[in-house]
Known about the structure:
TOMM peptide, transition metal ion binding, 90 residues, CN_Hdrase_a/SCN_Hdrase_g_sf, mainly alpha, catalytic activity, 4 helices
Amino acid sequence: MASVPAEHRTRFARLVADAWSDPTLANRYQLDPAAVLAEYGIVLGAGDEIPDLPPAPGEIAVEDLSTTAGAAMATIGTVSCPGACVGMSA
């Protein structure tokens, strides 16, 4: 399997996830991978090998985690202090 250049890994990961949930896209990738890669903003050089799509897992669920990630980031700034540290001086 050819490796994906670092600057394209996120885009290729999106392509893989989309192909796993869309058999038509996976089939198009098999027929014309360069065109599908280009649709995802991935243009390989002349000597680069076309990466294989990894096999899909049995059952997948696609979820939008952007809201959850934002909530998690908001709580990172909140620190809990056990009762023993209340009133401690610096």
